[in-house]
Amino acid sequence: MASHYEAPIRRPLVTGDKGYHDVTVDIAAPVEGRANKHWWIVFSIALVAFLWGIGCIIYTISTGIGTWGLNKTIGWAWDITNFVWWVGIGHAGTLISAVLLLFRQKWRMAINRSAEAMTIFSVVQAGLFPIIHMGRPWLAYWVLPIPNQFGSLWVNFNSPLLWDVFAISTYLSVSLVFWWTGLLPDFAMIRDRAVKPFQKKIYSIISFGWTGRAKDWQRFEEVSLVLAGLATPLVLSVHTIVSFDFATSVIPGWHTTIFPPYFVAGAIFSGFAMVNTLLIIMRKVCHLEDYITVQHIELMNIVIMITGSIVGCAYITELVIAWYSGVEYEQYAFLNRATGPYWWAYWSMMTCNVFSPQFMWSKKLRTSIMFSFIISIVVNIGMWFERFVIIVTSLHRDYLPSSWTMFSPTFVDIGIFIGTIGFFFVLFLLYSRTFPVIAQAEVKTILKSSGDRYKKLREAGKPLYEKAGGAKAKVEKTETVSSADNEAKTSELLSSLGTFDAETQTADKLQKINGIGPVMEKTLNQIGIFTYDQVSKMTSKEYDLLDEITGSFPGRAQRDDWAGQAEKLKNS
To answer: I need a labelling partner for 555 at 20 to 30 A (CA). Which of 154, 189, 507, 535 fits?
Structure first.
């Protein structure tokens, strides 16, 4: 019998045998390098959708809200549906960052940055709809209790619509500070690697003087925990208050106490689905498969499955309570949803939100990237239908049959909604090109804490950066192959840069080039590089060959522009 219990080895959250430098290079690559073809394709589509939405908004403001499909009976429809949908999507970002931070869940570290950015951008989209719906968006400040041209005009503090303003603006402020605080170490990393003076200056400003001292990290940890503690109640309060827009009314189908927890569960459900969608796209576009792994996607799918089951339970509870109440208006409202003119929306909601997440009980399906991507989109479609069903089917059959009517969206309604989706992806794609999409400092803390390979290294008393196992003959064989490979690469490099003739040429002092120290100069001499003329001929191809031969500080020569520096030194 064993003397102690040994916990099972956790699967590594970062794959590919990465080192600390590899993490820095991989995460900085989307910011420092050029955008690839996939990025430009997605960005172009999003930009076209955004511009279409801008056109529809301008047309609405210049013409009036009559361009929308609203009528006397259905005063809320497409706009409030989209508003609640976007607020719901913004929920998961703070949940992943704040709640999982408080519970010390390490799998959050590769995905929290994108989730936090998603929160900011989705709340921005949500805020557009109430402002546009005012008809006069330039008077939007009237919803705030501040002095204005009318003197003592005060807002109605009893209105849940005003609660929305305060709750969502507070949520946005705390989420923005939380997001930016987490970005400080990454901004400093980009600042230290920047080559262009303007880029270095910008990242110096937005990194707020981060130096990486122990005191910096201590304050960073303290502030992160405080903000997480503030943000966690907001996760529950924001969508609870959004649900009060409906629950405090007396309209059948809305006047129910289950709405607050029901809306919160639905928001987390749709938010995690959108995070999954974005992560699957980002891991492909930015080549982050080693950091956003199948394990991350699987854990996200488990949360989607659980919250989907909670939402399904809430649907059934609504039906039972409507039947048990004995109120014929309530009973008709729910019967009308399932069998009335909008039956297609109701059953689309049930199919997408209740039935589709149940596929995630299968490990094979929840670990399939393509299936996860499809389900995440299906869930968000279903959550949009949920908001549409709650709002429109409760309004289109009034107490008086003479008021009964139908709602049909116009091209302006549809255009504005598509425009906000385009705007969201434009912001997210620009963010991925300017900010690190993964918290590199946090990922480094979990790099050597899991996986069978690292356990064997610890038991052998070896450094964790060494390769585990391997016979001596195998190592010698590998070194022989590497040596032959390096000789071939060295010959190819010198054929481009030219060879040095000690009898007719004089060696230059290569240490004058910024980025070349005594050790690197010695390495370059061993390769056969002695003069500024040779270094000045380097292009991207030669830089890559040099990195492969030396194996130290990949990309540094190109970032420091050794060729440009050598050209100036040669001419002087």
So the answer is: 507
